[in-house]
Specification:
The protein is mostly helical. It has three domains: 214 residues, no CATH class; 106 residues, Nucleotidyltransferases  domain 2 (Four Helix Bundle (Hemerythrin (Met), subunit A), Up-down Bundle); 135 residues, no CATH class. It is 68% helix and 7% strand. It has 22 helices and seven strands. β1 and β2 form a beta hairpin. α5 packs across α7, α10 runs antiparallel to α11 and α12 runs antiparallel to α13. The chain is flat, with a radius of gyration of 27 Å.
């Protein structure tokens, strides 16, 4: 008894140690070789969902099957996120689904042979046997796609993740049904082999990356690119004045303002014309006059040093005005709070109807019998995951939930692009931790410190919530 307890303690310690090692290694690698990670498809959004999203969402389970004496669910962090990332990475990399599928089949066999059902515990694989499917996944991906590291990494992650899922869990579902118990696919969260297999495959494959790839420059989001470009134009404008080229200095200063206006206008779905941006966004009248002065100076055939210095000062003023207007694009906290309360009211109404249906039709309004059944646990899980499902659906399909629609708010990427499924899912799967940590109090503090009013989920998904009034040309209805 004592020996078996000691062995279990060692295996748990190894699991936790492996998880910490992988997390630290991948985080440091991402920060140090971000260009290489981006080239391989592991951008900030994917890494955020992989490391942060999976960790904080492991408390959520999606019920799959409920009956008398049997409850089966699938864990968000331990299985749903790895499945989504597997499909995403393979699709983005262009790896052959046929070859990846064949690899998954081989790894599934290895996972099946190295795992077993442990009564009272679940499906488990002993140390170091669970490394065999991982190494097989790495070996197959390198053999199939060794000339393309992006495809190799995507295939290795998918083979490791889906192989463990199919071979260790799905194939044994008939046996689980015969036993008749409560279980969760990927239920150990980030400590589950489904999650650890994919994560380990990524870490090992990265060790085979060419040295040249480790020197690749990182790419920046559009808003950072714009700021870097504007700063460059302004620096070059100052240099041109010192070099005795006032005409070039004025052109660069105006170019900086035009570039900033293009970006700010894009945040609101407007044209890039500076005067239009200032007019529609109700900028100061002096701003329009300042830009006309800058434009007039840039069109002069003979520009003096005094003209150039005046143009540079004017450009700095206009850039400050445009930056202030860009801040207006982000939804105020109180409007987001009102939108959330509207959505929360809708969710509570839907959950109340669901509870009424389950208790009324299945238990004839016998709450005591309901509370002692597996349906009670299923309903608790539905309450926990309701926010993630609700917001993900609406923000993926329409870019805004009903509450945001009423308040004229919309979710977009940091580059002001429409959000897809990955952005909507990433920003909302983190709601698990938002809800638990003092009911969004932590995120509220984060938003107050963030110039774009981003909560934790927005940072993971690289999204922002913008305000678009109904009479604004960029407004689009939800239906």
């Amino acid at each position: 008894m004592g020996l078996s307890t000691g062995i279990e303690a060692v295996e748990i310690t190894v699991h936790i140690g492996l998880l910490v090692f992988l997390y630290c290694g991948l985080f440091i690698g991402f920060m140090e070789f971000r260009g290489m990670f981006q080239r391989y498809g592991l951008d900030a959004q994917v890494m955020g969902l992989l490391l942060v999203g999976a960790l904080v969402s492991m408390i959520g389970d999606f019920p799959l099957f409920v009956s008398d004496g049997l409850f089966l669910s699938i864990n968000f962090g331990g299985a749903i996120i790895p499945i989504i990332l597997s499909i995403l990475l393979v699709h983005r990399s262009g790896a052959s689904p046929f070859l990846v599928g064949a690899g998954v089949a081989v790894v599934s066999v290895c996972s099946y042979l190295t795992s077993s059902i442990v009564p009272g515990y679940g499906i488990a694989s002993e140390f170091p046997d669970y490394f065999i499917p991982i190494l097989v996944a790495v070996g197959l991906s390198l053999l199939m796609f060794r000339r393309d590291m992006k495809r190799t990494l995507a295939a290795g992650y998918a083979m490791g993740t889906l192989g463990a899922l199919v071979g260790a869990d799905l194939v044994r579902l008939p046996d689980i049904f015969k036993i008749g118990t409560a279980g969760s696919i990927g239920g150990a969260g980030v400590l589950d082999l489904v999650f650890l297999s994919g994560l380990s495959a990524i870490a090992i494959i990265l060790l085979f990356s060419p040295r040249s790839d480790r020197q690749l420059p990182r790419t920046f989001p559009e808003n950072q690119k714009v700021d870097l470009k504007v700063n460059y134009y302004m620096d070059q404008s100052e240099k041109a004045i010192l070099d005795g080229r006032p005409s070039r200095a004025v052109k660069l200063a105006r170019k900086a303002v035009d570039e900033k206006a293009r970006h700010v206008g894009g945040c609101f779905g407007l044209s890039s014309d500076v005067e239009s941006v200032l007019t529609v966004l109700k900028g100061p009248v002096t701003g329009i006059m300042d830009y006309r002065v800058l434009r007039s100076i840039s069109q002069r055939p003979d520009v003096t040093r005094y003209d150039a210095e005046k143009a540079l000062i004017t450009a700095r003023i206009l850039l400050g005005v445009l930056e202030h207007l860009r801040g207006k694009a982000y939804a105020p906290l109180w409007e987001r709070a009102v939108a959330f309360l509207i959505d929360l009211t809708i969710m509570i109404a839907v959950l109340a109807l669901l509870l009424f249906f389950v208790v009324g039709f299945l238990f004839e309004f016998d709450f005591m019998r309901f509370s002692n059944s597996m349906w009670f646990f299923a309903f608790i899980f539905w309450v926990i995951i309701a926010q993630t499902l609700y917001f993900t659906f609406f923000e993926w399909i329409w870019g805004q939930s009903p509450g945001k629609h009423i308040m004229h708010l919309r979710v977009v990427s940091e580059e002001q692009m429409e959000t897809g499924f990955l952005e909507a899912f990433s920003r909302n799967v983190v709601r698990f931790v938002d809800f638990i940590l003092f009911f969004y109090l932590i995120s509220l503090v984060v938003m107050l410190k963030n110039p774009a009013n981003q909560r934790i989920g927005d940072m993971v998904a690289r999204t922002v919530v913008i305000r678009i009034p109904k009479d604004h040309p960029g407004y689009r209805p939800i239906l």
